[in-house]
Amino acid sequence: MEPLTPSLCSGKNAMTPPPAKSSAPLLPFLGGAAGLVLWWLIYGQLLPFSRFFAFDLLGLAPGSHLGEAVQFFVYDTPKVLMLLTLIVYGVGVLRSFFTPERTRRILAGKRESVGNVLAALLGIVTPFCSCSAVPLFIGFVTAGVPLGVTFSFLISAPMVNEIALVLLYGLLGWKVAMLYLLTGLGIAMLAGFVIGRLKLEHHIEDWVREMHVTAADVPDVKLTWPERFRQGKEAVQQIVGKVWIYVVAGIAVGAGIHGYVPEGFMASIMGKGAWWSVPIAVLIGIPMYSNAAGIVPVVEALLGKGAALGTVLAFMMAVIALSLPEMVILRKVLKPRLIATFIGVVGTGILLVGYLFNLII
Amino acid sequence: MEIKVLGPGCAKCSETEKLMQAVVAEAGVSATVEKISDFQQIAKFGVFSTPAVVIDGQVKCVGRVPSRAEAISWLGK
Fold first, then answer.
1. Of the partner residues B11, B47, B65, the one whose CB lies closest to the CB of residue A135
2. At A220, is the secondary structure helix, strand, or coil?
3. What's the pLDDT at A291?
4. Average pLDDT value for residue range A8-28
5. Chain-chain contact of B49 with A9 (C-beta, under 8 angstroms)
6. pTM score of the predicted model
7. Which residues of B are catalytic?
8. CA A164 to CA A313: how far, in whole Å?
């Protein structure tokens, strides 16, 4: 699995000398504020510029297939990349306050229910590379974090990620982004709670349960603000540097659908009327592995052509939260029955979300 | 000196391994760099987030690629 989601494995840099005393401590904050203003000014010009580019400069007719597709692409690409940069930076700084070790300490000894809620929330802010899923699982379970609470974390960490939220906000508006955030957290909390209730501890591989480990004694690194800002910058370099190509490709596909696929084309296949579309969307989504960056622009285009929101969100959640490569890795610590239960419980949660949205929107 | 890089094999783990090999070669110390990808062994070191670097049985850093300066300082040079 490509460690694309909340992957901030590197970042901290303990050996950098502290900033020289002579520089004003407020300087990084002022620089950040100036950057934010500049960002805002450019962002506001994107829509007029895309119109100017497509309809005036290239002379394409507004409303024509090619004109609409070009304008969509020229508007959406910088918009999404700018949003992505801003949010990844912010989350990078936020994540400098959390480490998996710290999260483990917080969750150890927490009761279920409270633990599920906390684990799902910590899943958003804990820097965690998807290839670390197994060591993290072992660490949590051996520290006495209940199985269900551990799952709440493992579900929320990839599903509720900043890239998905940014793209949903940028392309579909804040309401859809909030719905995704809240239902994603809800699924992580509830699915973890249900798995905890099912008492499946004996379906963890025996060697994990018999293991007694104490956390390695690595001193927590005290970070200064400039170091936190630098972590944000590194997050942007790593994440945006890696996903931009998926974003551009996704928007290009989206632009093609936007300009050429007839309005309402998807309505018959993925519309509200077709009850079977939600389970099918989930089933198709599970073996697919894509990161949020690649999938969201396609999702936008599907929605624009009449696909129902619930069906599309269910598809997206299944693609991001349930992936075959992750299951293969988790098989090393979980017996097949527990993996099947995990897929079943999370899949059911996603189905319910799909139907719920189709019903209320 | 015995250097172990713990990690299942993602991009960051191999980056860490390469870095450690490079600094060892550069510093000219006699040290072995070994990659450990077995989860059971990783867990025995008490490491829950990878990549991690262990030098002579002592865990030096977890969950990130160390900086070059950091890596050199561990070699005692």
1. B47
2. coil
3. 65
4. 49
5. yes
6. 0.80
7. 10, 13
8. 11
